[in-house]
Each structure stands twice: as structure tokens, then as C-alpha cells.
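Re-run with default settings, no changes from the original entry. Doing this only to confirm the output is reproducible before filing.
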Amino acid sequence: MPIYDQGYRRYVARSPLHRLRFWPITREALRAFAQRRFFVMLSFASLVPAIVGSIWIYMATRVPEAARLLPIDGQLFGQMLKYQLLFGILLSISGASGSIANDLRTGAMLVYLSRPLTKRDYLLGKIGFPLALNLGVMLVPGLLLYLTGLALAPEQYLQWRLWWIAPAIVLYAVAAGLVVSLATLAVSALSRSARVAGIALVALLIGLEMVRSILQFGFNRREAVVLSLWADLKALGVALFGVRDPQIEIAWAWPVLVLLLVSAGCLAVLRARVRAVEIVT
């Protein structure tokens, strides 16, 4: 009777149910978010700056003196997005600070990674949630305000010299949203408690901002702007929209470099903390 070699055979799995395997993680997080009344109310409240900006554009088209106080060019959008950034940070802290912390506490991460999901799929799914929140309160209101400007003052916004406003809105919303999302998840990955992670993120943002203020105003160190993540994000808006901010008097390249380094550091933290095997010491 012949004997056949029964060596190792690689398992050939069937095609995944979802081509975007990270999407169910993001979708379920958004669904849970939509069921919380406070978060929904905060999302609607984030439309207030865009509504105020629309009213200002209407007034500027009817009363030319109003445009002298705040021109309805890039400065208007820069000022509006500065407030939208605050809403994005608040939603990220309150809604996404427990994204990875809760998985570490309950052991759900091991369940995720034991399925046909890679570490990249898991991270993309988790990043997609806070990024969607930030884009929802920065990109959507910004583009709505721009469309309002096109409707109320087409003779101004259709000029060649203002063609850059819409791309600048998209670039700022994506860049700021990605940095805030990565920072939120990195802090969440360092804790097993959503509350502790949220408090730690608030303390980090406020603490760095206080250090920046002390060095900048107490010791006249303008370069201290780069120490604050919040100030770096505002500096990006100043560079893109030409907003006049006396607190931001530094070349835009330095805040951008800091934001890139912070993003790289957050990715390194996430890569180290997200693993399929829990090490107990």
C-alpha cells in the first residue's frame, strides 16, 4: 500500500466578506456614537461657526463696511476652522478616547486579531472613527461655508485669486483631523481606561499650551509655539489661510515638522501596543 507524504499544506481561505475589512470597525463605532444624544448635540453645535460665517458673508455683500472688519476671503475660513478644530478635539476626546483602551481592558483586541484581520486593518478601523468625526466638523462645515460664499458672492469667490480656498479647506481638515485622531488613539493605547485616557489627553493639550504661553509671553520665546500641539495646528491654519494671529509668529515649516514628528511617534506607539498576544509580567 503506497504511503503518501502528508506535509504542511497552506490554508487557502475564501475571499473576505468585506473588501474593506477595516470598515465594520469604523461603522460600528459610528453607530454607537450616533446613539448618544450628547455627541449628536455637540455635532450639531459644531455647525454654529459655519452659520455665523454664512451670515457674515451675507452682511458683507449688503454692507461693504462689514468686510473691513473681517474680509470674506481666506481669513474668514481660517477663523471659522479655528473654532471647528475645537469641536473636533472635543468630539475626539469624549467619543474616541476609549477606542483602544476599552479593547485592552476587555481583551477585545485579541478577539479582533484572532479573526481574518491584520494589525493594519484594526488600526485603520480605529483611526477611521475619530477621523470621520473630525472631517464631519471641519471639512463638511468648511465646504458648506464655501458653497454659501459661491452662492451669495460669486463675483468674489469665482475670481482666480481665491481659487485656493476650497483645496486649503480640504488640506487643513484632513491634516488636522489625522493628527488629532492619531494623538487620541495613541493616548488611548497607553491606558486601559477610557476615562483616564480622556483626562490624560486633556491634560496633555492644556499642559503643553500652558508651557507655550509661559515661555512665549513670560520669556519672549516666539519659537515656543512648536511645543503646543494646539498651537501647531493653529499655525498650520495661519499658513494656509493667511490669518493674522499675533501669537503665531514663526515660519510655518517648524510647526509642520513637529506635526509630522508627532504623527510618526503616535504611529510607533500604536504599533507597539497593538498586538495579538498579550504579554503578562
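Residues 104 and 149 are 46 Å apart (CA to CA). The chain has a mean pLDDT of 86.
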